[in-house]
Amino acid sequence: MRNLQALKFVVCGLATVFLADCGGGSSGGAFTLTISPKNAAVVVTTQTQQFTAIVAGGPSSLAWSVDGVIGGNAATGTISTGGLYTPPAVAGTHTVTATSTASSGGANPPQKAASAAVAVTDLPGVFTHHNNVARDGTNTQEFALTPTVVNQNSFGKLFSCPVDGAVYTQPLWVPALTIGGTLHNVIFVATQHDSAYAFDADAKPCSQLWKRSFIPVTEMPVPTADVGAGYGDIQPEIGVTGTPVIDPASNTMYLIAKSEGPIGTFQQRLHALDLATGNEKPGGPVVVSASVPGTGDGSVGGIVSFNPQQEHERSGLALSNGVLYTTWASHEDSDPYHGWIIGYDATTLAQVSVYNSTANGSRGGIWMAGAPPAFDSAGYLYASTGNGTFDANQVAPNDLGDTILKLDPSAGLTLNSWFTPFDQSLLEGSDLDLGSGAIVVMPDQTTGPHAHLLVMCGKEGQTYLLNRDTLGRYCPAIGIGCSFDTNAVQSFTAFQSQGSFWGTPAFWQNRLYLGGTQEPPNPGDKLKAFDFNPATGQFNPVASSQSATVYGYPGSTPSVSSQGATGGVVWDADISQYGPPAPSPGPAVLHAYDATNLATELWNSSQAAANRDVAGNAVKFSVPTVANGKVYLGTRSEVDVYGLLP
Questions:
Q1: DSSP 57
Q2: Which of 169, 371, 513, 616 has the most beta carbons within 10 angstroms of its beta carbon?
Q3: What pLDDT is attached to residue 484?
Q4: Taking the model in full, what pTM does it have?
């Protein structure tokens, strides 16, 4: 009998099943067959998934199938006799089934089956802030996370990855990367402690693949007290703020790190890191420096020079046509500063272009709530500036505060077109920066009056729809035959009285998602959806839906995941407890909404009991990254990973 039991154990082990009785149904118990996990997500071709069948009170013999095909095939993906699934080369969703194949005898039923859903993505990666150079915040290749499965019973927090400082950068995701001889899906983040991390995107508990520090021996991250005007916007130190950008062709990640040396010397450096090792690539790091002719604030002898202490790379890096673009504002309006855009050759890191938004004036910072410039298919660069000097009467203006810029990279970042609201002087005098919000380049239109459009919203709460071919320049309220932004395709107020916007909109299936709010002590506002009509080329200025959740300052930057044109989920982080000037630091709250109706909240990270899904403490301008069935969120002390529960 003892030998027979040992033989049963061996057979069960080979079948990768767990049996209450591995010889049939003679135990008399109920016959059950279940499969784990119930939901899974994998990357095409490269990522496998082990499924396990759990049998009780029934036969031990099992058959595995995919979409009804025993063993699967090249179109559905294959599955071994031990339950190991290998996905196909084409994205989609499939059903894996384990079926008992022998009669159990006695009163037990002769056969049972259990199934699991597996989603296969062909998403090439999330390489830049808000997912792409249009900055529309969409991942339309997310097959696992649908409105049906995103709920507190099947979705939640899986694990966290600790870090050494606040994560203001959006997590970036790269699939099928070989590190240390092993294939991984990888998440990359950088911190205000001047560090960068690579984590396995799927391993639980968290697996750190590498970490790199950018602090030279004689330097340190910049204490908040050494820059800024005392608002405490970023605490307690400033290192890497802007989201890096990844070039998948060369497996390189680029970022800017700020540090302080002895007796108040400051440096900002452009780093180029090998994705597999974190090691610096040849040519890096490069100390950031630039100058332009001008008589503006801080100029010396008719030259305005980049100030590494005052300038802050709040916006992320951008990569277009082999050129890296870094953009600059300040720490908390601490003068003197200007809006800079500096271009570098991505291969050599040689500086190739420089633009200053207020060379003969002051300010005009490029903030955009952490977003980099946007680009259209023709390669034009779009950015928005904040409060600053404005000389609208010039044919070729030098100073463009509170303006949307269209720059031509092929001509050394020359000004091609611009748009400035008619009430620019009011914006300037009331600290209502147009550039508090970021630009989204809309898809090219095949109908309607304008083929090429962009949309953005600023601190005044006004949403502007512009013709990219000619942005409209400046139209004062009185004087030149136009008034009240008639030079825009459309402008409308998106939020309630005195509502403002700090973030990047999302745009999916002709719907614009805006997460506005109001500055303290005023109340917040809701996440709203505005529908675009391709035939008229305009938005309905009345929101088609809105969240029940009210978002406090500074609002949010939503992202959208979907399966092409269907199954949309809007992901949004409430970051109102990020710290000063909020009442006190507290956790970020991640929300998921049905993209067709924001009144339908599917899930949020505060719903589940016992703080199961609670996130780390919030940071300003946090952006959720959605990829391969998971959502990644940077916080003050960790990267939180959410996904399908096993």
A1: S
A2: 371
A3: 83
A4: 0.93
